[in-house]
Amino acid sequence: MNGKKDQKILLIGGRSKAKAMALSLLEQGYQVITINKNYDDCLKLAEIKGLHVIHGDGTKPDSLEEAGAEDCDIAIALTSKDADNLVACQLCKKKYDIRKTVSLVGDPGKMEFFYHMGVDSVVCAVSAVTGIIQQQAFIDEMTSIIPVGKGLVQIIEVRIQEESPAAGKKLMEITLPKEGIVGCVLRGDSTLIPRGDTRILAGDTLVVITISGHELNIIQALTGR
Amino acid sequence: MKLFESKKKDTYTIIVGCGRLGANLANTISDEGENVLIMDENKYSFRRLSPNFGGLSIVGSGTDLDKLREAQIEKATAVIAVTNDDNANIMIAQIAREMFNVEHVIARLYDPECEIVYQELGINTICPAVLSAKEIDKLLAGFPAKEVLA
Predict the structure, then answer these.
(1) What percent of chain B stands above pLDDT 90?
(2) In CATH, which superfamily holds the domain spanning B2-149?
């Protein structure tokens, strides 16, 4: 907790995203500073208690200096323009030595380019949202998917029902595609790391690690859907 | 002369932003008989091109990778970013340099303060304010001191 209090997070741009993120970060005990170009947005943000609000352009050194960028630990660029986010992150990184920069990007095709240009973490709202919508549309609502490792690996939660082919079988009796592995079984309040002879029961939730793109095959092998 | 001309035609310049500067440049390059393509988000901007402009034009954002590929950026010998948005110009220049290895990359920047971002990438920049200041300074230096005081 003490460690967190020393951490300063800089939010650049963004309207509702900046507000929601500032509230959540402040609650977790971080120091939060926002820079926003739009004066009305600044007024909205200034209603949040404990938040430092700077009216200025986060892609310009003078505004970043005013916000004390050199003392910040993490910078998060949330503007709606990819170019602004990129320049803001590059300035934070190169001029102010901010340890970690995170950028929102609108165009999924630019994610790799942003990483190449030195942004530490790139989040694409479009691909994240389409991913979630697909997940909601095609998969049983009991399954949740978390992408890790730049989205190359997925951690999936799979609920086993009575009629699932995996129910009642030992793990070694289930033929799973080789791109995935069952890492954990959640049964009631207990958690077990499965071995080959662990029997999967209806009502279990399996935590499965898979290579991206193969998650549907694995879910199908376990649940029959 | 012929030999010189045919050599010139091997160049392919992409200009992003059809404002006064972009259109002027495109007209000049086209008049010289070189290959040129101009991009702008707004179709209406192309009115600034001269009637005998012999290059190509594409409607679209220069920060859009698909549009840049459509413009065959990988074949370009030069990319010139002259939109009215500094950050867009920086990003276009970086995309051209880092993703498509374009040889000559020039960006126009109204505000040269973000220098650190692009200086190590070998991107040439033009800053109108700095150029104008230098030029005015040069003109002033031309006046005899007495005349300035009077």
Answers:
(1) 68
(2) NAD(P)-binding Rossmann-like Domain (3.40.50.720)
Q: How far is B83 from chain A (nearest CA, A)?
A: 12
Helix or strand run (H / E) with residue B149 = helix B145-149
Lowest mean pLDDT among A79-83, A88-92, A156-160, A183-187: A156-160
Residues of chain B positioned with their CB less than 8 A from the CB of A92: none
On whether the pTM is more than 0.80, the answer is no
Q: pLDDT of A211-223, one tens digit each?
A: 888 877 888 888 8
Chain A residues inside the 8 Å CB shell of B111: 60
Cα gap B107→B113, rounded to integer Å? 14
What CATH number matches the domain at A2-126, 1.10.1740.10, 3.10.129.10, 3.50.50.60, 3.40.50.720?
3.40.50.720
> What is the distance between the alpha carbons of residues A21 and A48, in angstroms, rounded to a whole number?
11
Q: Which chain B positions have a beta carbon within 8 Å of A60's beta carbon?
A: 111, 113-114
A84 touches chain B (CB under 8 A): yes
ipTM: 0.82
The C-alpha atoms of residue B88 and residue B118 are separated, in whole angstroms, by 13
